[in-house]
Amino acid sequence: MSTGSKIDLLNLRDGSVRTLHFAWLAFFVTFVVWFGHAPLLAYIRASFGLSDPEVKALLILNVALTIPARIVVGMLVDRYGPRAVYTGLLVASGLLAFAFAMADSFEQLALARLALGFVGAGFVIGIRLVGEWFPARQVGLAGGIYGGWGNFVSAVAAGSLPALALFVGGDQGWRLAIAATGVVALLYAGIFYRSVRNTPKGSTYFKPRRSGGLEVTSRRDFYFYITMTVPMYLALAVLAWKLSPSGVGLLPPWAARGIYAGLAVLFGVQVSQIHRVNAEMLRAGVPRIYRYSFRQVAILDVAYFVTFGSELAVVSMLPLFFLDTFDGIDPVRAGLLASAFACTNLVARPLGGWLSDRLGRKRTLTVLLSGLVAGYVVLAQIAPQWPILVAVLATIACSVFVQAGAGAVFAVVPLVRRRMTGQIAGMTGAYGNVGAVVYLTVLSFVGYSTFFLVIAASAVAVLLAVRFLDEPQGHTVEVREDGTVELIEVA
Fold first, then answer.
1. 490, 472 in Cβ contact below 8 A?
2. Which of 6, 162, 418, 436 has the greatest CB tally within 10 Å of its CB?
3. What pLDDT, on the 0 to 100 scale, is given for residue 289?
4. Which residue segments constitute the domains of the chain, with CATH numbers given?
């Protein structure tokens, strides 16, 4: 395992460095499979003669299941380990890519895109893996590299898919491009399984005592946890509403009502599972030495809501923003200008993790969220009379704080409770998607300037919440399966 405060990314003899590279490559592969269709939508639309509402429906369906998927995958990775779960997800990614490539109707396209939402949960798995292989003083930087490199490289790779589709030509072009991502996923599944271990040799892989929900350690946290699950179901209801006759019109009214009812039932099932997992705690309590504050998890959730949530939302709308704001630019140029917001991921997300390791978790989040607020306030002032270069520079500056903030959030996640890192990462990651749904819904009702100001205002509220974040100190206590106790360093 790496020691010290730096990570030598070229030292492939170091098991932790090798594992980090295998992890971000796995994230890269799943992300390309997940979003590889986006740059090919023009070909897909022409191939099937899709209407604008049908295209919008595909985009919505692509993220609809990612929110619950991150929760489910978080539970699975805590239970079965990153090696097996990431391998399984890569295999599923490949098969689903083939299903999408072979679709011959809009209904088959829609079903495949809905299922591919599960692929978006891959990020969660690597967070647990990185947390197992790197000490507390390096975990922020390692997690930032994992997330930042995976995001950036996948965006670059996705840009090459249209070239492949154009080279092949015809209806088979986009199908071959999508199928190629599936082949890569299946091949890498075998490589990952043979090359990665869950933990360094001699280390214990701690598992939750029960599956079905997070273990909390007080009655107050039990109710707090249930409350924090509500926004995820509301976000799914909003997505269903967007597919209903009130939105793009893909779903008939009875189907939308059925989804709402189904979400209510699922919420009841989840509450019963949370109660089952925590029944012993509610009955007998938890010794002080084993307690942690769920407040930590909730603060990380809302911090990721405004960081990654706003990133997803802004990346989705920024090309249109530039197109509508500045005269004389075409859609291609607007897309290139907007891409500057995502391209800083390569450096910004690792930077946020590194600052968190060096300066402290709470202080770093406070500084980066303050910069995020200022950045979005500036974006709200962009007007047609601004020089385009100044507008792009303002966008890049804002994106650095946004993505570094996301890296700082996940610098804390592995330090809350080792045996539940997957579930905590899953819930935090899901809140990022919830944020995107909320912000894009706001955008459908307001103008661009107000949209940016709403993000800034919500970030101010999160800044107030971060004041109550506890800086990780010393060690936490984990219990092995044989009942013995181990101290885990978190500072």
1. yes
2. 436
3. 84
4. 1-205 (1.20.1250.20)
Q: What single letter denotes the amino acid at residue 371?
A: G
481 contacts 207 by C-beta, under 8 angstroms: yes
pTM of the model: 0.92
Point out the least confidently predicted range of 72-81, 170-179, 332-341, 411-420: 332-341
Instruction: Output the six-digit token pair for 204.
Output: 């214990």
Task: Give the whole-angstrom CA distance, residue 59 versus residue 118.
Answer: 14
Note the pLDDT tens digit of each residue in 9-62.
888 889 999 999 999 999 999 988 988 887 788 888 889 998 888 888 888 888
* Contact (Cβ atoms closer than 8 angstroms) between residue 226 and residue 274: yes
Question: For residue 386, what are the β-bridge partners?
Answer: none
Q: How many CA atoms lie within 13 A of 253 on its CB side?
A: 1
Report the 10 Å Cβ neighbour count for 246: 11
CB 35 within 8 A of CB 159: no
Yes or no: say if 325 and 448 are a contact pair by the CB < 8 Å rule. yes
- Residues with Cβ < 8 Å from 102, sequence gap 6 or more? 175
* pLDDT range class, residue 156, cuts 50, 70, 90: low
Roughly how many angstroms between the first and final C-alpha of the chain, as a whole number? Answer: 17
Q: Are 411 and 356 in contact (CB under 8 A)?
A: yes
Is pLDDT above 60 for 396? yes
Comparing C-alpha atoms, which of 122, 152, 149, 146 is closest to residue 134?
146
Q: Do the beta carbons of residue 356 and residue 140 sit within 8 Å?
A: yes
Residues recorded for the chain? 491
DSSP state of 319: H
Question: For residues 418, 481, 221 and 211, what is the CA-based torsion angle, rounded to 10 degrees?
Answer: 90
Strand partners, 486: 478
- DSSP classification of residue 102: T
Residue 360 CA, chain-centre distance (Å), reads: 23
Q: How far apart are CA 298 and CA 308, in angstroms?
A: 15
Please spell the DSSP secondary structure of 323-343, one letter per residue. HHHSTT--HHHHHHHHTHHHH
